[in-house]
Design a protein that fits this description.
5 helices; alpha+beta; globular
Length: 136
């Protein structure tokens, strides 16, 4: 795909996001040199922390192709994906991700405390183990 076309589309989407008071991050997914999905951040519009450009873009494409496996697709994003988006990208099995800027907010939202509960974990382990035994 023509990198100039991708760059111009990402700039357009980023500017659109900024005008809507969203963090101006844009994302495009490509297959066979064709843009198949595009999005920008929409956390403010929907008051939802999940509405990052990458997740919206993946969600649109999955809905369109009726599959969550994106093995043959490549993503272009203006900012290095955050940890949440990285995990969603890995789960979706995207072939490649290209980004333009590093994020300097890696630890910005590190205020949540995580604690493992040791009781009853065998119950959940058994449910998961049984489920995957039937799948394999």
């Amino acid at each position: 795909m023509n990198n100039v076309k991708i760059l111009n589309e990402l700039i357009k989407l980023s500017q659109k996001a900024a005008k809507k008071n969203e963090v101006p991050v844009a994302c495009i997914i490509v297959k066979n040199n064709k843009i198949v999905s595009k999005a920008f951040n929409m956390k403010e519009k929907y008051n939802n922390p999940l509405y990052h450009a990458e997740i919206i873009c993946i969600n649109k494409l999955c809905k369109k192709i009726k599959d969550w496996r994106l093995n043959d697709y490549e993503m272009y994003v203006t900012l290095k994906p955050c940890n949440m988006c990285l995990e969603v990208i890995k789960e979706s099995r995207l072939k490649k991700v290209y980004y333009f800027l590093n994020s300097n907010n890696e630890q910005f939202n590190a205020k949540t405390e995580f604690k493992k509960i040791e009781d009853f974990n065998e119950n959940f382990k058994e449910i998961l183990t049984s489920f995957f035994k039937t799948k394999r």
